[in-house]
Specification:
Length: 104
C-alpha cells in the first residue's frame, strides 16, 4: 500500500498489533425480584421494564388521575420507548387498574 506517511502507517500497524485484548469483566448484578402488580393486561406493560426495573413503577406514590397516561407518553416521547400509539391506551388501562390513582 503506497502511503505518503510510511512512519505513520508503521506506527498505526504497530499500535494495532500491541492493542491489549479486551478483558472479560464479570459483574454479578443482584437478581431482579420486583414484578408488576397482578391485574388484567399486565403483559401489555412488558415493555416498561426493558430500560429500568419495575420498581420505577411500583415505587410511585398514588398519583392524580392522568398520571399514568402522561408517564407512558413521556417514556415514548422523551426517552424513546419503542411503544406504538395503539399500545399506549392498553398500558395506561393496566397501570390505572394495577396502580390506582389517588382518590379525591
Ligand atoms: C426507552 C427506555 C424506557 C422505557 C421502555 C420505559 N422507560 Fe420509564 N424511564 C426511562 C428513563 C430514562 C427514566 C428516567 C430515569 C431517571 O431519571 O433516573 C424513566 C423513569 C420512569 C419513572 C420514574 C418517574 C419519571 O418520570 O422519571 C416511571 C414511573 C417510569 N419510568 C415508568 C415507565 C413505564 C410505565 C413504562 C412503560 C410504558 C416505561 N417507564 C418504559 C426510560 C424508559
Amino acid at each position: 500500500m503506497p502511503t505518503a506517511f510510511p512512519r505513520l502507517a508503521a506506527a498505526l500497524a504497530l499500535a494495532g498489533a500491541c492493542a491489549a485484548p479486551a478483558l472479560a469483566l464479570e459483574i454479578d448484578l443482584p437478581k431482579e425480584t420486583a414484578t408488576l402488580h397482578a391485574a388484567s393486561g399486565a403483559q401489555n406493560a412488558a415493555q416498561c421494564y426493558m430500560c429500568h426495573s419495575v420498581d420505577y413503577i411500583s415505587s410511585q406514590p398514588p398519583m392524580p388521575a392522568g398520571f399514568w397516561e402522561a408517564e407512558v407518553k413521556k417514556m415514548v416521547q422523551t426517552y424513546g420507548a419503542p411503544i406504538t400509539a395503539e399500545q399506549i391506551p392498553l398500558i395506561v388501562r393496566y397501570l390505572d387498574e394495577a396502580y390506582p390513582p389517588q382518590k379525591k
